[in-house]
Amino acid sequence: MSPFFVMSLLFGLIFGQTASLCAPSEYTIHVEKRECAYCLAINTTICAGFCMTRDSNGKKLLLKSALSQNVCTYKEMQYRTALIPGCPHHTIPYYSYPVAVSCKCGKCNTDYSDCVRERVRTNYCTKPQKLCNL
């Protein structure tokens, strides 16, 4: 192996986290309940971006700690609650949602994150829309 390759590999392993572009990003959630008259559009922040990932093709040559599949996930978050307008009295009109305060590259925690990238579902309203800026 050439000295340049070895130095590049070491630099990438040591400073890989600094090259990550994981940060809170603006996002709009559309929330509906069948019983309610309106759809609520909630402006919030989610964690999104690029995290350095090490390919496991060379796993026999590298230490296990050097191999990781990092995702952009919450470092710190808060929950807020919004009131969905136009709900009848027998319906609970509240919706709680996470707000990303800060983000990090790390292992995906299934307690509060969807770790499988599925097809993007449509995020829209089928009822008249109200905007919620919190």
From TrEMBL:
Domain Glycoprotein hormone subunit beta: 21-125
Keywords: Disulfide bond, Glycoprotein, Hormone, Secreted, Signal
SMART domains in the cross-refs: GHB
Lineage, top ranks: Eukaryota, Metazoa, Chordata, Craniata, Vertebrata
Entry's family note: Belongs to the glycoprotein hormones subunit beta family.
Species in which this protein is naturally found: Acrocephalus arundinaceus (Great reed-warbler)
Keyword field contains Lyase: no
One annotated GO molecular function: hormone activity
Localization per record: Secreted
Name of the molecule in the record: Thyrotropin subunit beta
Signal peptide (from-to): 1-16
